[in-house]
Amino acid sequence: MATTTAATAAATGKTRRRRRSVFSRSDKIVLGFLIGVPTFIVIALVWVPTMLSIILSFTSWNGIGGISRIKFVGLRNYEQIFTIYPAFWSAVRNNILWLVVLLLIATPLGMLLAYLLDKGLRGSLFYQTAFFMPVVLSLAVIGIIWQFMYAPELGLINNVLGKTAPSDQIDWLGNSNLNIWAALVASSWRHVGYIMMIYLAGLKGVDVSLREAAALDGASEWQAFRKVIFPAMRPVNVVVLVITIIEALRAFDLVFIINGGRNGLELLSVLVYDNIVGEASRIGYGSAIAVILLLISIGPIMYYLINAFRKENA
Questions:
Q1: What value does the mean pLDDT take over residues 19-36?
Q2: Residue 280 — pLDDT band, cuts 50, 70, 90?
Q3: What is the pLDDT confidence band of residue 194, given thresholds at 50, 70 and 90?
Q4: Residue 286 CB: number of other CB atoms within 10 A?
Q5: What does 47-105 look like in DSSP terms, one character per residue?
Q6: Which residues partner with 59 through β-bridges?
Q7: What's the CATH number for 86-313?
Q8: Which of 52, 119, 134, 314 is the most exposed place for a label (fewest CB within 10 A)?
Q9: d(Cα 178, Cα 264) in Å, to the nearest integer?
């Protein structure tokens, strides 16, 4: 019995050695290069700056002078951000509003468009192209486009509304009560097309037999979508949720193009820029805001990764 076990172990060891020798020396060099270079880039450009930002968030460095000028102040930056920095809470409120609008208005609208286009409507290819066109544009370009749309005198919106007289003109981007909503319309214009394409791809992957079974059971179209199709797209729903949260948190280009992210358009990303790159030159203060934004962003990312790993192990 012992002899048989030893022979089996020896055979297993030989098999493992054969499997390990499948790759030649040159193959291992190529694999190491393909894996090592991207890993090095990610560490150098993502993780190192992130760790440095975390360290600098506990300092009062203004960016002038070398490392010897860095002074550690503990949690003072965080304490001041939460207590005596009113722009922070205004930015948090705007980021939450951004998320609510994208999640409850833009995302369902993109889902609706995807559902209608999945029905094979006439000219669906044209509609897909038209709605997806804003997605290929950067938010900075979208900001420039909507600046012209919202222009008080020559803008398309005021001309359509008949608000061309100087006394009737609406300053969409200059009015602090209106500019956040104007920016959200521009952001939703892009987000709707993005979500539409994701859900359109998801709908193509839904098993046709599920729809047929729902129809045979007498379910209406709305009931079939709510109880059969939508639950079947759970992985897509998770991806869309994560994307929407990240889009709301990282919004910067659009508001910065419109008015520099000021006068009612403050966002957390704008505060990071203003404190680090702007005239304030408070590297430690801006790094603390960046760390807060990072911690908020980690939540949906971790949720997505946990769900992805659970699906693989199921």
A1: 79
A2: low
A3: very high
A4: 24
A5: IHHHHHHHHHTTB---S-S-GGG--B-TTHHHHHHHHS-HHHHHHHHHHHHHHHHIIII
A6: 72
A7: 1.10.3720.10
A8: 314
A9: 9
d(CA 8, CA 2): 10
Q: Where are the domains of the chain?
A: 86-313
Rounded to whole angstroms, the Cα distance separating 172 from 135 reads: 23
| Least confident stretch, 156-170, 203-217, 300-314 | 300-314
CA–CA distance, 256 with 270 (Å, rounded to integer) = 7
Say if residue 129 is exposed, middle or buried (CB neighbours under 10 Å; 0-12, 13-18, 19+).
exposed
| 267 in Cβ contact with 261 (< 8 Å) | yes
**Is the distance from CB of 157 to CB of 178 less than 8 angstroms?**
no
User: Rounded to a whole number, what is the largest CA-CA distance in the chain?
Assistant: 101
More confident residue, 93 or 278: 93
User: Which stretch of 20-29, 53-62, 79-88 has the lowest confidence by average pLDDT?
Assistant: 20-29
